[in-house]
Write a structure and sequence with these properties.
The protein is an alpha/beta fold. The chain contains five helices and nine strands, in the order H-E-E-H-E-H-E-E-E-H-E-E-E-H. It binds the ligand O=C(O)c1ccccc1NCC(=O)[C@H](O)[C@H](O)COP(=O)(O)O. One of its GO terms (molecular function) is isomerase activity.
């Protein structure tokens, strides 16, 4: 999200989380201002290889409740962040998936983050607008709750509802570019339709 009026419009749909991209190269780069949102929406800072100081500073500036790490942040980096942040701040570690994705990679991250987010591997660190083959998730070896992401739009509703019927611990669906009028400007009506049709 990027624009104050649009942030409020989408906030009125009461998503569980709302993301703000703090990666300067993104067309969705967020630099404020951030209007007051309903308390239950977890404001989430999305970072790509940012420093600990940068993350801590944005958390305090925008009163964020969650951090989404979208770069090559190491286990040690996540551990240090976890040690620094208040316990209530959620850490979501992103993994970019392709058919060769090695799920053993996840193991050392189990104790240093709260959620895994699976996005599609693409040219950009995020917001590529393409889906990956969710069949690879059949190899998911963990019980840690998952954010499912990557190219999810209205056309994917049936697929999302199918995967929600499986035993995978899918905790949230993360959507982005397929609901945009332009970069960072979301289509409230389409998001509303999506939310109504997802069988969580
Ligand atoms: O959206 C961006 O511009 C972006 C840039 C750098 C890192 C992450 C970014 N977006 C992260 C997200 O949370 C997206 O929701 C996720 O990558 C899925 O995006 P999309 O494929 O467009 O649905």
């Amino acid at each position: 999200m990027k624009y104050p009026d649009n942030i409020l419009q989408v906030g009125s749909l009461l998503p569980d989380y709302m993301g703000f991209i703090f990666w300067e190269k993104s067309a969705r780069y967020f630099d404020g201002p951030l209007p007051n949102l309903p308390q239950n929406i977890k404001k989430t800072g999305v970072f790509v290889n940012a420093s600990q100081e940068d993350i801590v500073s944005k958390l305090s500036q925008y009163d964020l409740q969650a951090v989404q790490l979208h770069g090559h942040e190491s286990v040690a980096f996540c551990q240090e962040l976890k040690n620094t942040l208040a316990k209530s701040i959620e850490i979501i570690k992103v993994f970019s998936v392709d058919p060769e994705f090695d799920f053993d990679e996840l193991k050392p991250f189990e104790t240093v983050c709260d959620y895994f987010l699976f996005d599609t591997k693409g040219k950009l660190p995020g917001g590529n607008g393409t889906t990956f083959d969710w069949k690879v998730l059949e190899k998911y070896p963990s019980q840690k709750p998952i954010f499912l992401s990557g190219g999810i739009g209205l056309d994917e509703i049936d697929l999302v509802n199918e995967i929600l019927k499986t035993d995978l611990p899918i905790y949230a669906i993360d959507v982005n570019s397929k609901f945009e009028i332009e970069a960072g400007l979301k289509n409230k009506e389409e998001l509303h339709r999506f939310k109504q049709k997802i069988n969580f």
